Amino acid sequence: MPPAGPARPAPAAGRTRHNDPMAPLPEHPAHADLRHRWAAAVGGAEHADRYADALLARWAEPQRRYHTTDHLVAVLDRVDELADHADDPDVVRLAAWFHDAVYLPDRSTNEERSARLAERALPELGIDAARTAEVARLVRLTVTHDPADGDRDGEVLCDADLAILAAAPDAYAAYAAAVREEYGFVPDDAFREGRAAVLRQLLGLPCLFRTPHGARMWEERARQNLSTELKLLESSGT
């Protein structure tokens, strides 16, 4: 996930989430295409559709506002756009499927739990141990979005996940509003402070994007968007 709001608090006592495994999957216009893309990424494994639907159900959970099926589609599209830079594009695609598969806005363990989900599911689909480990490593990398030099698969996944920062102004505003909705349990002042800290940290980085395409096509607009949002947050807090 892209860096979002303030640090997540511990969940309130008694707070629970209920996911009914028997509930029908809410339909989304991209579901048919996503099932095809999943099947291609797992090499046509037996029962691939069952696993795709289980993941799609996670991406459709009601607590999500930004980290939704639309975000999954966007990240997969950006991975395809950057695929020539990757060492193993299908491993990156699998990591995209899993990178926010577990998402509770008030928890700090989403990436770790998503990685562990991949470590359980992929061997059942016949994905070998090395590729499963690489998928899990990439999912965990989205905690920091800081791939090591030469980590081409990590660079592709992180750039794909952060590409929303370079969206057109109206799409970026919709992203920022959706993030605020996901953190609706955080008071306004605390959210402004936490979000502003995230934006300053991002703007302080020497580069947001590591692939040549991302650096060339997305860096400047992303910095403009981040600066604009930061100014709005600072002015709304005065």
UniProtKB/TrEMBL annotation:
Residues 1-29 are annotated as: Disordered. Gene3D superfamilies: Hypothetical protein af1432. It comes from the Bacteria. This is Metal-dependent HD superfamily phosphohydrolase. It comes from Streptomyces lavendofoliae.
